[in-house]
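WP5 quarterly update. Target: DNA-binding transcriptional regulator of glucitol operon. Source organism: Saccharopolyspora shandongensis. Length: 140 aa.
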Amino acid sequence: MFRSLLTPRWLLLHALFVVAAVATGFLAVWQWDRAHEAGGSFQNLGYALQWPLFGVFTIFLWVRLMRMEAHRDQDEAEPEAAETALREEGAPQVEAQPAARRKRPLVPPPAPPVGTEDDPELAAYNQYLADLNKSDRHAS
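Structure tokens (predicted):
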């Protein structure tokens, strides 16, 4: 389960997250010191309080990514275990067929036109918009 977190990719990610968390800690201390100097301002104090939040978010994201990787590994391991159990029982193998994709247009078809007898207010509004469009085309 945790073996996948020791791949070169994950080791680089671990190093990156540790460096980012430590850097946000140093930046928070630096801004805190700047806020208490003679030329310090409330902006420095704001940053001093904001950098630890960035560090906490970095750690949260790190833990979240590791959990997602662990769940992905478990999900991949479960079907393999189920397949081996079926093979051991001697159950007939069923070939998995790819799911058929639904064919639908990328753009939905236009709505059917509304007649004056269906909705006179909507028909009048549509006529008003058509007249505006016509006058716009003639003006330009």
